[in-house]
Amino acid sequence: MKESQPYKILISGGGTGGHIFPAIAIANGLKKRLKLVEILFVGAKGRMEMEKVPMAGYQIQGLWISGFQRRLTLKNLSVPVKLAKSLWKARRIVTVFNPDVAVGTGGYASAPLLKAAAGKKVPTLILEQNSYPGVTNRLLGKSVDKVCTAYEGMDKYFPSEKVVVTGSPIRENIMKMKVGAEEARKFFDLEKNRPTLLIFGGSQGARNMNLAVSKMIEKMLSLGIQIIWQTGKISKPMAEKSVVGCKFRKRVKVLEFIHEMDKAYAAADVIVSRAGAISIAEIVQVNKPAIFVPLPSAAEDHQTHNAMSLVNKNAALIVPEKELEDKLLEAVHTLMKNPEKRDEMKANLRQFEHGDATKRIVDEVVKLIERKNTNE
Questions:
Q1: Which of 48, 158, 208, 251 could share a disulfide with 226, CB 3.0–4.6 Å?
Q2: Is residue 2 part of a domain?
């Protein structure tokens, strides 16, 4: 390993929190491990990574790139031009920055950056957090050196010699959660001993999920439970209105956003959530029974595939969005009123634990750097 010069690392991940926050977690892990390191992020102009990455203390350059829209639209005409310009800029970034390794966690910018890096013989690694990989990562899998996955059996999609199961990086305060249920419920101004349901959507929104919950909130509360309900900005007025006339309205906390997710997880007996990679990884880590409502518009319907990986092992329940009004209340009743079922799910969730995923991924990145230095 280098002694005086910093290790130079390119990282690309964006579009959603599910790509950005793991990328930041990996960057933080590499800073701790390598000490002397220079990290540059590459994202897509106009996407949330251009704001979130600098907030985390890292430099980022943007590529002018976007994906194809599924519906017919004139916007698709610009995609090939954007891709060509992004490939040119990605090659320039790789040439000028001269990285020791390039890491991709998903998002539009990952494809041109990792392709450019691999083309210049830079060691490359991608993170695939979903149980069914998207088209971009399936294509990149042919040219990168290592594929870190959250699920077993991913050699169906990637060369088996490149695959290592690491799990998904999650927030450190959730990885090392210390708060107990009573303390957490007190934080949310709830009763310390009452069964608690946590409801939240992912970064891509949960309007239809929130609408369904608003129609059955009174019946949910009549089960004798209390609820922490994260709605997002758009759905909050609707959610608050639905609670106003409830007999037990003091038992539900409607929040636009929950900054203290470790406390929300600690307070909950059961969780209703989208099935994004980060949400699932965190739910596995905190070992809480969950009802997953996959986002129907997710690419390749990957959220349904993610959820079914757990459902098939009796480690979670699933309610498709189109069946929410018919089946969500029944699913909530099943878990909230059946502690034996919850215990069974908790036991089954443990087979999906991977320990410290960030450390495992950092280990793989460091191995690639060491291999490169040995060959030079």
A1: 251
A2: no
Amino acid at 199: I
Say what the pTM is: 0.88
> β-strand 196-200 against 226-230: which pairing, if any?
parallel
Question: Among 277, 133, 132, 257, which Cα is nearest to 206's?
Answer: 257
**Mean pLDDT computed over 198-225:** 90
Domain count, the chain: 2
Contacts of 70 by beta carbon, 8 Å cutoff, 6+ apart: none
- pLDDT for 176-193, tens place per residue? 888 999 999 999 999 999
Beta-strand runs (E) in the chain? 7-13, 37-44, 59-63, 101-106, 124-128, 146-149, 163-165, 196-200, 226-230, 252-255, 270-273, 290-292, 317-318
Query: Would 25 be classed as within a structural domain?
Result: yes
1 in a structural domain: no
> In a 3-state reduction of DSSP, which class is residue 258?
coil
Q: What DSSP string runs through 314-326?
A: TS-EE--GGGHHH
Phi, psi of 292 (to 5 degrees): -95, 135
Q: Which domain holds residue 310?
A: 173-352
Residue 297 Cα distances to 268, 362, 366, angstroms: 27, 32, 36
- pLDDT averaged over every residue in the chain: 92
Decide if 342 is inside a domain: yes
